[in-house]
Write a structure and sequence with these properties.
Elements lengths: L12 H11 L12 E9 L8 E3 L1 H12 L2 E14 L2 E12 L5 E13 L2 E9 L1 H9 L3
Parallel strand pairs: 1-6
Antiparallel strand pairs: 1-2, 3-4, 4-5, 5-6
């Protein structure tokens, strides 16, 4: 069986790589989408264009397709990982560009990740909503 091609998601690679590095040997798979369970629940606790709850790997991939059509990340850093009994909590920053305006996008996140059978089964995301709003509403 051939590996899926994730080239369309390349603008989010800094984020995907940071998450993969943070989870290390807690999960199996090379790419972010390889380490996500088919029935994942991906919650975002902010209202800025993403659904509040995404159910399933296919819908998560579709949501990220919209993300990479609008934002290109140049880097992701300042990773702090806190291991828990059933996963981990990660804190990190992403840095990129809003494609429609060229505005710089810098944001901070805290993600609570539950892992079962070496796959991400639940993700709860918190971010600096004001930073995202400012980047998305800034004119060229």
């Amino acid at each position: 069986m051939s590996k899926p091609n994730y080239a369309a998601y390349e603008p989010a690679d800094p984020y995907f790589n940071l998450v993969r590095r943070a989870l290390g040997d807690l999960v199996d798979g090379e790419h972010f989408f390889d380490i996500v369970d088919d029935h994942v629940i991906y919650e975002v606790l902010y209202d800025l264009g993403w659904p509040r709850i995404i159910k399933g790997r296919a819908d998560l991939m579709a949501a990220f397709r919209g993300y990479v059509d609008n934002i290109a990340l140049q880097s992701a850093d300042k990773l702090i990982t806190h291991k828990t009994d059933d996963g981990c909590v990660i804190e990190y920053e992403v840095h990129g560009t809003i494609l429609a305006t060229g505005a710089k996008y810098n944001n901070r996140f805290c993600s609570i990740i539950k892992i079962e059978d070496r796959k991400i089964t639940h993700w709860r995301d918190y971010m600096d909503s004001l930073a995202a709003w400012n980047a998305m509403t800034k004119k060229k």
